[in-house]
Amino acid sequence: MEQQQRIEILQKLIQIDTTNGNEAAAAHYLASVFSDFGIASEQLHYSDERANLIVEVGSGAKTLGFSGHLDVVSAGNHEDWTYPPFSATHTEGKIYGRGATDMKAGLAAAVIAMIELNQDPTFTGKLKLLATVGEEIGLLGARQLTEQGYVQDLDAMIIGEPTQNTIVFAHKGVFSYRVESRGVSAHSSVPELGKNAIDKLIAFYINLQAELGKITAENSVLGAFVHNTSIIEGGTQINSVPDYAHLIGNVRTIPEFDNEQIEQLLRDVIVKMNDHDPDSDLRLVVTQSSYPMFSQPDAELVKIAQSVGKAIIGQEIPCIGISGGTDACEFTRGNPQMPIIIFGPGNETPHMVDEYVEVANYLQMIDVYKAIAKQFFAV
Ligand SMILES: [Zn+2]
């Protein structure tokens, strides 16, 4: 493909405003790009105006997945931008716009790599693109695709989030919850007529701390399992027995002690307390559960990406773990053995005013993706 066409595809993708929605328009656009090159695609409807895009090219026993999200975060006040956020203005080697770095450049690079590999008679292998909705708010599309079995056939996956010339092969998961304690109000002069929700919540807190203290799990890259009690609220006035209190906790999980395990631990503590004390009415509400992602540092995909990246980009490409969550949190649940790397074009401007991507960086990543795919199927 001509460089100009590669650049135009990215510009058109940025020009489609997919702020926390409207991904169907972007999915439809990319489907038309594939179609121009004779490649069929599937759009998986999520809700009104929202659709994931799934594309397969090639054939073979092994499948390499590419993934990127179609949505972007709000551009905020458009007046604050040097160039309008959905103009995709190309100037001085940069393309400006909301989503330029996070992550329409990574997504467009994967799309073009797939199209070009499909045209290459020397290439054999099966590639599958999963373009998702709602990554920024709840990993919605990744969850839908995972639950509907779209990742089970993948042998490895590259997510094109901006990583600034590093390869992310591990990140912690996030688990947020609320424990609600219900009591019965009464005048504070006759507390025996009521049930004190704060007392029961504090008893829960103490029991929980004891159980958390027993967790010794640690990950060689990500470090320890971490729990933080973030908020405790309860009671309304000085002369009443409180009938409600709650506690909000935030947990950073690791594969060695993951989301399922912390949820079970919380439930066990609650069930035990409710069973042993008829005045205890505790309930667990899980408000967020994103799984940790961990690929072995010596996985084939990691090694290939590192050597290819170094050769093409011309510098060492360190492999790192981060704490942020991506669509990998969902994909890894559907295919726990699948190595996943996060490796894409972009810089430190995600979610910022004047977000941009260096055109050279974007174009280079197309070559990196193609070279990774070729080597992945050569071994
Ligand atoms: Zn992103």
| Overall spatial form | elongated
The whole-angstrom Rg is 24 Å
The succession of helices and strands, N to C, reads HHEEEEEHEHEEEHEEEEHEEHEHEEH
Helix content: 25-40%
Instruction: Name the bound molecules.
Output: zinc ion
Number of domains: 2
Our count of helices gives: 9
In short:
Helix content is 34%, strand content 26%. It is built from 9 helices and 18 strands.
Give the helix/strand layout.
Layout: H1 3-15, H2 23-36, E1 41-47, E2 50-59, E3 63-69, E4 90-91, E5 94-96, H3 100-119, E6 125-132, H4 140-147, E7 156-159, E8 167-171, E9 173-182, H5 197-212, E10 218-219, E11 223-224, E12 226-234, E13 244-253, H6 259-276, E14 282-290, E15 293-294, H7 300-313, E16 319-322, H8 328-334, E17 340-342, E18 356-358, H9 359-378
Parallel strand pairs: 3-6, 3-7, 7-17, 8-16
Antiparallel strand pairs: 1-2, 2-6, 4-5, 5-18, 8-15, 9-13, 9-14, 10-11, 12-13
Helix pairs in contact: 1-3, 3-9, 4-8, 5-6, 7-9
Bound molecules: zinc ion (ZN).
Zinc ion binds at residues 69, 102-103, 135, 161.
